[in-house]
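Model the whole thing, not chain by chain.
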Amino acid sequence: MKRINFAIGVHNHQPVGNFDHVFEEAYQKAYLPFLKVHEKYPQIKLAQHYTGILFEWIEKQHPEFIPRLRKMVVRGQVEMMTGGFYEPILITIPDEDKLGQIQALSKYVKQKTSYHATGIWLAERVWEPDLPGPLNRAGIQYSVIDDAHFKYAGLREPQLLGYYITEHQGALLKIFPISEKLRYSMPFRPPEDTIEYLRSIASEDGARLAVFADDGEKFGVWPHTYEQCYENGWLENFFRLLVENADWINIITFSEALQQLPPIGRVYLPTASYREMMEWAMPAQTIHKYEDFDKWLKDNHMPAENRVFVRGGFWRNFLAKYPESNHLHKRMLRGSARLQKLMKGNSDRSLQKARNHVYAAQCNCPYWHGVFGGLYLPNLRFPIYNNLIQADVVMDKIERTANEKKNGWVHAGSMDFDSDAYEELIVESDRMNLFFAPQSGGALFELDYKPRAINLLDTMTRREEGYHRKLRQAIADKDHPAAAVEVASIHDIVVMKEDNLDQYLHFDWYRRSSLIDHFLHPYVTLDAFQKAEYGEQGDFVNQPYQVGTAKKGRAMVVSLKRDGHVWIGDRFVPIRMRKDVTIHPKKDVIEVQYTIVNLDNREAELWFGSESAFALMAGDAPDRYYFSKQAKIKDTRLASLGTLENIQHIGLCDEWLGLKIDLEWDKPAGLWRFPIETVSMSEAGFERVYQCSILMPHWRITLKANKEWKTNLRFLFGKC
Amino acid sequence: MKRINFAIGVHNHQPVGNFDHVFEEAYQKAYLPFLKVHEKYPQIKLAQHYTGILFEWIEKQHPEFIPRLRKMVVRGQVEMMTGGFYEPILITIPDEDKLGQIQALSKYVKQKTSYHATGIWLAERVWEPDLPGPLNRAGIQYSVIDDAHFKYAGLREPQLLGYYITEHQGALLKIFPISEKLRYSMPFRPPEDTIEYLRSIASEDGARLAVFADDGEKFGVWPHTYEQCYENGWLENFFRLLVENADWINIITFSEALQQLPPIGRVYLPTASYREMMEWAMPAQTIHKYEDFDKWLKDNHMPAENRVFVRGGFWRNFLAKYPESNHLHKRMLRGSARLQKLMKGNSDRSLQKARNHVYAAQCNCPYWHGVFGGLYLPNLRFPIYNNLIQADVVMDKIERTANEKKNGWVHAGSMDFDSDAYEELIVESDRMNLFFAPQSGGALFELDYKPRAINLLDTMTRREEGYHRKLRQAIADKDHPAAAVEVASIHDIVVMKEDNLDQYLHFDWYRRSSLIDHFLHPYVTLDAFQKAEYGEQGDFVNQPYQVGTAKKGRAMVVSLKRDGHVWIGDRFVPIRMRKDVTIHPKKDVIEVQYTIVNLDNREAELWFGSESAFALMAGDAPDRYYFSKQAKIKDTRLASLGTLENIQHIGLCDEWLGLKIDLEWDKPAGLWRFPIETVSMSEAGFERVYQCSILMPHWRITLKANKEWKTNLRFLFGKC
């Protein structure tokens, strides 16, 4: 009789910052019902991975779940896997943090389930070939990885029924290839199909091993799967069939497989993740090329086995594709490095708290974007900055002298913060962190307000995405369905959460941030400006500024200066721009003095605007709104668009955060305000996401030859 | 007028262990004439990389070359690049060694040319994304890498005219994409073609940069290129044309480009090398699939731009494809680790010498195989083991006590030496190192003879290669040309260095080594045996043995034991095999006692043979030969094949090494001897390469039920 070994792994995860109701729904629709069915089948052994984030949530909200799980672990029915506590993509974080994150989850798992986990769930299965080094140091013996990775190394389907050894300079790791076939059949096709597939690969010697491992959310949370798994009884039927066929299907855990089966051989996996992610990591235009090639291959009936030779990019290029992702990443590294340095020979216990914040800021979900929200979701980005700023506050306290604590402090330093080969300027006070990009418009691109631990410039810039083409086509076709069609094709569905989303497809030519200096063509309208389809007459927006810093009393003054030009008619008029930004210790205010000098020997008519962005996470929440001391604002939602004339103040209030921001200036100005909204893919379809509000006071200035014009802006932060 | 920047880089290298005449030919045909032409064109600036190996050879053989080069460096005509001194593939060696190798070459370059090199030539352009970390630590600012790597990251042709930044966790590196177009046109197409190509990509702003960088051997050593470059004057014409077009072609060094041009952007390169190497790294069968797919794409007229989505494997899989490569690699890591440990807090100056040996053993060429000999060439593998054993000898001296030095020493330890998840046993004495594989036949797979610093088991096993299909086809076609056809298609030529090479295509089912225990079918012939197409009746060859060690006086006894089976007719007879290997300190002898026990209750007729391999590097050299005290040997070449009957001794003599090996045993036996010869690709075509001589004394034994049979073998090593 032909027999086969079969190992099952389930990975359960919710990102830091996900809404409580999302956790709860996943618990009620997937984690809990899965456990309930599983409890009934003691013969079914499988591996479970819960991220630390999810574990802590369950422990708090449904503490009764843990002992039930533990019971199954103790009786050998569940093998626990470990991972990074906050589910970081391991290759993105320093080796010390890899170790710390894994140790943290392993310790937690041991405490709660008494299992000593030696298998690791690799977040998003992002692999680089030196990973066995740090994993080995963390006591890891095995991992489970997509079979695609193995095929990229040259192995073929029949060679993937077992496990392999890989290593980095002698540090060993055993790796199980996850069957893509099983990933697509479970739970989407009838349980009998999986049994039949297992039968087709069973062998006389019974030495082969089939591996399924995938997201636990597939069993209840993904569209239609709750109905499939529990109402239609897929999971119960599947387990029952496995038990009925126990004479030839040998259910086995990964650890048992390591004990009972020899490795098939040696393999080295290239930089890879699952196939779709490798596509997403490429630039939008290249994704089009790739999709076109894919279609060409299908049209020409490519033999399926060649699919493995066709490949996209790899994870790290999300950092190149999205400056915001790179920004998150380098900000996280900065926090981690500061902490590492501080922890050397310092036993202050609050550093443990800071470390936990840094680890929490390593949760992978907002660092990238595919068909799930990720980077485009403000509620996932928010906790990254929030945790990093909280870590900073803890470290500030440790690093400061008594005198500094009393009088406050402010410090400025230049460094290539984001690894772009240009130096940025970072000003830190005990109230705020300000990150300036002298190389690019002298803009302020991160503004951390420490009392609320928020980066007020945590916004996305609008960019063309590979899938926008699909959106436009679907709208052009007019006959797109209003709802998802098939459970299995989650990656291909074109569903829109609202009509006419193509109207929001505007793309920015510079990164959205603050203190961006515009000179507009006389006929520019707010509509054209907000669509980024207008005439920019100056060369200041994203061009280099000189930068200097000076102490003024206890305050720090950052001076940003550029001798540039503005097109006036057919003249390219030399204009000097200077902005002096003053940051006080212990004060929640930023003062900006603008000085514009006409370096020409003729009079110049200028239309100058200073653009700033405020990212308060929700455009339509009633507790977040605009207000003005001087004007009546019709629509006060942060996602609203409007103009005001002849004012000197605008305010933003976020009652949820308890934060009020006043923006005021000394020369009456017009004001444009509009939201930046992105159109991105999510599990539920294409959706519009509010990223930030743009405010631009603007002045029409007539400047005589060699004359200067000045205005003072102030940003004030306080309680709402 | 449209203008363009143009940067040129030339990489010159010869592997450790290459024949002196090969160095000399390359010098006379490429390095020297290139310099001579270059000297005449002071306007032409370019980057030069010489590996340390080549530099030292030149310094010794043609010391007048160095000051000429230095002169060109000093007048700014040549920019020197650095690299690993012995041209290791950096990703294969420990980070400490990366640093040391680079520092060693940089120091040498500085001394000889007074240039402080900050650009690195990356051996074989093998890239992994964490490389910027160690490169940054070594003070490297830039490298040049195939444009293919960049395309794999999603960039397209027009985006590759300049340089990019990449980084690993904040450690920055600037990378120039090498134009594949230029690699294929220089020097193979008329110089005008390159000028025309440059014209086609020149732009009004003159900000673009075209990069050529490739092997210096292309300019004189590769087939037909000496004629092309110097007799036909390609190089001179090319330089002249560049000078004539200096108004729009701006010759620039890499360092100048970094000063004068901004980076185009950010990119992260996946695990990659040049396209061909990624194919070679795959298993033979997968190469066939890949080639078939390639043909399918061509037949279906795939749009060329899609080529970048089609990819093979990556470098590390050479370690999976060739156990011999993995062996070299882990042996090198062992040497490096031993050294690192010893250097901590030990200032013995001889450690510098040991370190140099370890570095020399990291030269990449024998670690892999494509269309150039590499791993298949004994003269390239020899210096790896030679250097590692010399390093061991130095370290032995440091580690041993006075008493051990006087009386000799021997030590045994088990460890997973080759990272295959099984433990090997390593026995070290002051005379020899013996590496046993209990898991696989209890075989002896490395035998280092320290007085001559040679691994006598440095052989290849015969395996099917992807290109053997091509060889068979060409022979089947009968009309294959006798010589190369076209200069440009070096990768596609089917040239054979001798006729009927397909007759040598036999493939081994076990790894060739020593003390391999065979039980043969009564009708097996030497011919069938040497072709590995015979009936093996036992299950001892590559199956697990138990292993134990014991001291016996000052000697070490390794006992290898297996209860296995031998097919006799239709019976699978239980047989116990035991081999006790005795290693003495201070003695150049290995004693092996075989004990074979018939565990059955019936008499057994057995034909037992003990196979051993001796790799003395040359099968046809007159100074390396067989001899026997008891029999007249007809053909004494090590590559000869033959049988002897009823003898108790055979000897091998290597006058070149001054090494004699006697193999003797106490029970008269038949002896089979034959060479292992591989058929591999080389620059000059398919060639047969002698790898080792196999010796197998064999006995026909009638063993009564529960009786045992014994014989004693001795391997003696001495002067020839």
